[in-house]
Structures are given as C-alpha cells and as structure tokens.
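Before a colleague's protein record goes any further, I have to sign it off. Would you go through it and say whether the fold makes sense for this chain? Take the sequence as given and treat only the tokens as open to question. The record follows directly below this note.
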Amino acid sequence: MPEPEQLVIGVEGGATKTDWIYLRHRGGETTRLDEGRLPAANYLLIEPAALERMLRSLPPEATHVGVFLAGCRTLAETARLRELVTSVWPQAEIAAGGDRESGFAAAFGDDDGIVVIAGTGSAVHGRRHGRVEKAGGWGQLLGDRGSGFDIAVHGLRHCLRTFDVEHRTLPLARAFLRELGLNSLNDLVHWAQDADKLAIAKLAPMVFEAAEAKDSNIDIILDVCARRLAEYAGAVARRLDFDEPPVRLFGSVFVHQPKYVALFKENLEKHTPRALVEVSTESGALGAAWIATHGVIATPALPPEPPPERVREFAGAATEQPNPRSANLDELDTPALVDLFVSDETEVTSALSSRKNELESAVNLVQSAIEDGGHLFYVGAGTSGRLGVLDASEIPPTFSAPPDLVQGIIAGGWPALHRAVEGAEDSDIAGAVAVTDRGVTAGDVVCGITASGNTPFVLGALRRARAIGARTILLTCNPARHSGDESWDVAIDLPTGPELIAGSTRLKAGTATKLALNIISTCTMIRLGKVKGNLMIDLDASNEKLRDRAARMLSGLRNCSYQEARRQLAEHHWNVRACLESLSP
C-alpha cells in the first residue's frame, strides 16, 4: 500500500525575519512546492494576533506543520505556540518550539554536532548524546560576538578612532556615508545612536569590501571577530567531549563571506584541530519541516504534572486553606469588607508573638555574620521575593550601610519585581545557580522566604548555601509544612492561618513577612550600633527631607539651634555620626 501524501509546512522565525517552506512528500520523493520570507517573528516580541495573521498567510492545506521561533524556550511557551498553530491548521500534525531545535534539525537531522550562527546576531549550540551546550547568543549589548552586527560596530569604531587620532576620514567611513545618504561623521554618529540591530548589521558587507582593499586594520577586526566565535565553538566542543565534532556554519556572514569562513576555520583549528567544518545554506525552515514529519522534538500540550507528594504539599499549605470568615466575600458591601480585612490583620501580631524566640535567633545569627565580615541574602519568589528585595533596598539609605551588605534575590530576576515571571519559582537548580552567581560565601547568611515553605527556587538556594557553608534561615507562614530530613539554622514558621482570599499570600502572610524582615534587619542594625537612642544617626541624608531630619536630630542630641546643626552637618558632609564624634569631649 503506497504511503499517503504529506503536505508539510516548516516555519522558522527570528528577530529580523521569518523563513518558511512548503513541501510535498509522496512515494519516497520530496518536492518543494513553495518557500518565502515573512517579517520578524520572535516569540517574545510578536503579539499572538500578529503571529496568527502571519501564519494564516501560508498555504492552508497541510498534513504536518512545524513552527519554531526564537525566544520560545519554556514548556509553557511551547504549549501556547502549539495551541496557536493548531488553531490555524486544526487537522495537521503540529510540532512547535524554539529556533535552536529547527537549526539543529536543518544541520544534522537527529544526529549530533555543533551549529555556529553568524548572521545579524551570533550564537553557538552543540548537542551530543542528548546533552546540549551553548555559548554566546546574549544579544547585541553583551554578546553577538563575531556577528554581522559586531563586525559593523567594529568598523564604525575604527572609522571614528582613526578620525579622532589621525584626523583622517577612511574610505570605509565614506562608504558608510554613501550607503546611508549621510554627509558627515557627525551624521553617522547620530544615525548609529538611533539605528536598530539589523540596520547596523547591514553595514557589515562594506567592512569586508574594505578588507579586500588591503586595509590591514580591517583584517585585524575580522580576525578578532572570527576568533571569538571559534573560541565559543571550541568551548562547546570541550564541554561535550567532542574530539572530531561536525560543525555547520549558518547565517549570512558565513554564506556570503568566504574570507570569514577561512578565518573561522583557521582559528578553530587552535582549539579543536579535528573539527569537520562545513557551510550550510539550508534554511532553518527546512529543519522545522523535518521535525514536523519525524517527531524528534517532543512538544507536550501542557507542562508535566507535579508528583503526588508535591500536590499534597501545595494543597496542605495553611495559606491555601479556605477561610470560613470570608466564605461570602463576594456578597459583602464595602464597609463590611474593610472591617473584615482590618480585623483579620490582628492575627499577624499573634503570629509574630508566637515566634519571638526564633526571630531572636535570626537576629543573633545575622549580627554575628555581619560582625565577622559576612552579608545577608534574602531569597524569594513572587510576593516573598519582592518583600526581600524591598527590605534589602531600604538598608543603605536608612543606616548608610554598603549596598552589598543586605541583598535580595528574586526568582525571575529584575522583571519579576514588576510582573509575574511564569515558572520562575519552579526550579531548585535556578535558585542554587543564583546563590552561586551572586557570590554567597561560607561567612554569609541566606534567608529563604516562602509563604508555603515549599517553593523550589527558595529551597534550592538554601541547599546550595548550606553546601557552601553559609548559615541559613527559612521564613514561612506554614507551620504545617513538610520538612522531611531537611533542617536549617533557624526556621521561622509564622502561623498566620488561611487568607481571606485563599492562597493570596500578599495579604496576612505578606504583612507578617514584611514585619519579620523589618525585625531581623532593623534589630541587627541596632545591635551593630547604627542607632543612638531611637534615632538613625547613620541615615544617608540624600534629599532635603532627610537633611531636615538630620538637622533636627543633631540639634536635639547636641542641644544646639537648628541653624547651627545644619552648619555643622554641612561641614561634615551631612554625616550625623561624624558630627557627634567630632563634638564629643
């Protein structure tokens, strides 16, 4: 019985363009029916509606569709992309994911090897025996070394440096001006300040033309760029224990510039002399189509379910339980709602009072560490993480402490301060890496903040801190948490009880957590001598309100006029402690 006909669409999207291909598989033969290029489709930058419109412009008849986009990394993102593609081709077999998978497939199918990309941007990806390693690909600000963008930027800098040092306009600079329709180097600088990555990368061919004109400085630039990419490829090969790695070169710079290919090979031989290097001219869209028919990349529709014991932990947390006092919350008028919320907060004081001994132990632990040169790190996710970052950020202006003395680490990093970062808290490995990358040492204290007591990011951070030798504090609002065989130097489980809105730990649990952090950090600073009486004599008087506070404080402590206090503070750079010490008998 003959194999059924397959109509296959492959799509690979990136920040600068989207390639697609339409194939027919029949009787063991493959025919290219159509192919083309669409606007950019980076998953993180394109709106779902715009992506859907783009996909609906492709042939509607398909039995297999593969769509792989730059920026699509997590299982949840893959599931959403798959769902969108399915809405366009509901009868087709769908494969979806990131452009790394489609690039690999275009180069190697399901074999192993190393892909080196040098187009507008650059990156190196390697795969061997199921392991994947990466180097570069950090974007134009911190990465993209050896890319068209990088080459063009080096060329622009060379032109400006030559003009500054020798007061000479290079032929390359004139070529840039001619290409862009500009009149002067000042115009070129203003253009570059506003130009996007793609516009700058389009200048790279002129840099290669300048090299053909025997500009030795341009030769140095190209060699440096090729050397960086070769270093990345060699590093990936070493990490994968690849002795004779097949290396495929992708991207417009490699495809159109044989000189650059030769420079890359020459430099790669220094790191991996037995590498087998070839330039690939196939589009990643072909790899996307290959995956669609071969099914190499698994794309589950939903993230995997957590194990049963984790489900029980989630469901058993005190903060997840329904609160009988708020069963009819949606039926209450505004006065009743406000009264209920105000009265519910009384449980916060009770919870803190029941854990005074643990809070005392935490203060003593942190004080001892800081006196010995250590630091305090808060680690949390979501509301807990934000509260930790907030408390850490308030220590320098309040007590003139160095900004690294108390630090906050939040799952998902800086973006998580402003919005939820999906899945950020689910990786214990990410928590462990964050502790290592932030430089935690054996002399430090790491305080993990998690209302439920079972956030993987936080527990992973605490475990890594303990392995390093740092002291550990766990702060939760769930006395019923399952601790297993794990123990920390101090565990503070605040019994705040169920929230008025079940699971909304920004309510009582958030209030109690903020107060607990206030107690730990503020009492530590007091014990370290940062307060005189009840006055913050080490405040950073960085604005008029704080300068007024400092003057009133000094006036009261030294029994002098407000004006005299301001004069003395001005002489001592608004340092209250310095004023007090200079005036001591």
Notes: The chain has 23 helices and 15 strands.
